[in-house]
TrEMBL record:
Region described as Disordered: 1-68
Record keywords, A-Z: Iron, Membrane, Metal-binding, Mitochondrion, Mitochondrion inner membrane, Monooxygenase, Oxidoreductase, Ubiquinone biosynthesis
Top-tier EC class: oxidoreductase
Pathway: Cofactor biosynthesis; ubiquinone biosynthesis
One Gene Ontology term from the biological process aspect of the record: regulation of reactive oxygen species metabolic process
One Gene Ontology cellular component: extrinsic component of mitochondrial inner membrane
Residues given in the record as Fe cation 2 binding sites: 191, 243, 279, 282
Cofactor(s) needed: Fe cation
Protein's name in the database: 5-demethoxyubiquinone hydroxylase, mitochondrial
Role: Catalyzes the hydroxylation of 2-polyprenyl-3-methyl-6-methoxy-1,4-benzoquinol (DMQH2) during ubiquinone biosynthesis. Has also a structural role in the COQ enzyme complex, stabilizing other COQ polypeptides. Involved in lifespan determination in a ubiquinone-independent manner.
Binding site for Fe cation 1: 161, 191, 194, 279
Source organism of this protein record: Argiope bruennichi (Wasp spider)
Length: 318
């Protein structure tokens, strides 16, 4: 210990005598210290994985942004912090100021979008309720009720005349060469005129035709041909049942149009009255050609009537 103490004393005395040597040692020590990496940096480099650097940068930006937003606005840094002579520090401050402006604009946009979301729900609810109340009020007007009544009448009558046309087409395919062929042909021609008239009225009154016309096409032809195969009496029984239902249906429609407005519905009233009389004439013609003599006449006519009532109910809605 004495030798070491004596050697240390001699070295200190030499440094006092040679100041340049002491300055060189300090510079050499500082250079080694600058070249040597810090312990935290060495651990970070050893533990850093691919992609870690970018995440650390994003994390640092987020911490910097949060600290800036919570403490001092960056636009005041140039007044608070003394500007250094190096360009590096001034460029960093400018970059932070630009970043703060971007964050503030984004925050304003988010607040504006939140405001829109908050007002969208009550505004949409108000529009829906207002539209519903306006629609309900319009549906209670006489013009809407008349329009709806005319649309339903024309749709179901067009479907009924279309089905009657197909029934007579099926009967003519089987009984066209018999003694009742001419009678069926006469009634079929009148049904064709009825169908043509309703096809003219549909676009005039802007009424929608039935969506079940393909079904009425097949069902009508099958009914007409099937009853004709059972004999001319069964074919006439089918005519009696169908025309009775159609004539009663025309009478109900005439009463509805008169209750609505007989003046504004005059055209439809005249047409329906004429067609009702034609259907009643077909009914009487069927009775005159031995329709009651058909086998199981009562059950046959009742079954056909039930089918006609179901077809009318569907045609009024579809």
């Amino acid at each position: 210990m004495e030798k070491q103490t004596a050697a240390g004393v001699r070295d200190r005395e030499k440094r006092k005598l040679d100041p340049n040597r002491e300055k060189a040692c300090k510079e050499k020590h500082n250079l080694r210290k600058a070249r040597r990496p810090k312990i935290s940096e060495r651990n970070t480099k050893q533990q850093q994985m691919p992609g870690m650097k970018e995440r650390n940068c994003d994390k640092a930006r987020g911490e910097r942004r949060s600290s800036v937003n919570s403490k001092v606005p960056l636009t005041l840094l140039s007044e608070i912090l003394p500007l250094s002579s190096s360009n590096k520090q001034s460029s960093e401050i400018e970059a932070l100021i630009l970043e703060e402006e971007l964050v503030s604009s984004t925050t304003w946009y988010l607040r504006y979008s939140d405001l829109i979301k908050m007002t969208a729900i009550p505004l949409t609810t108000f529009c829906v309720l207002r539209r519903g109340l306006a629609t309900k009020a319009f549906q209670e007007t006489s013009s809407y009720k008349r329009r709806n009544l005319q649309d339903k009448i024309l749709r179901v009558d067009h479907a009924g005349e279309f089905g009657a046309d197909r029934i007579y087409a099926g009967q003519m395919a089987v009984l066209g060469q018999t003694n009742v062929g001419s009678v069926i042909k006469e009634m079929w021609d009148q049904e064709k005129d009825h169908l043509k008239k309703f096809e003219e009225l549909l676009p005039k009154y802007r009424a929608r035709p039935s969506m079940l016309l393909p079904i009425w096409n097949v069902a009508g032809f099958v009914l007409g041909a099937g009853t004709a195969l059972l004999g001319k009496e069964s074919a006439m029984a089918c005519t009696v049942a169908v025309e009775e239902v159609i004539a009663d249906h025309y009478n109900r429609q005439i009463r509805d149009l008169i209750a609505d407005d007989p003046v504004k519905n005059k055209e439809l009233l005249d047409i329906l009255k004429k067609f009702r009389d034609d259907e009643q004439h077909h009914h009487d013609t069927g009775l005159a050609h031995d329709a009651p003599k058909a086998p199981f006449y009562k059950y046959l006519t009742q079954t056909i009537k039930v089918g006609c009532f179901g077809a009318i109910w569907l045609a009024e809605r579809l």
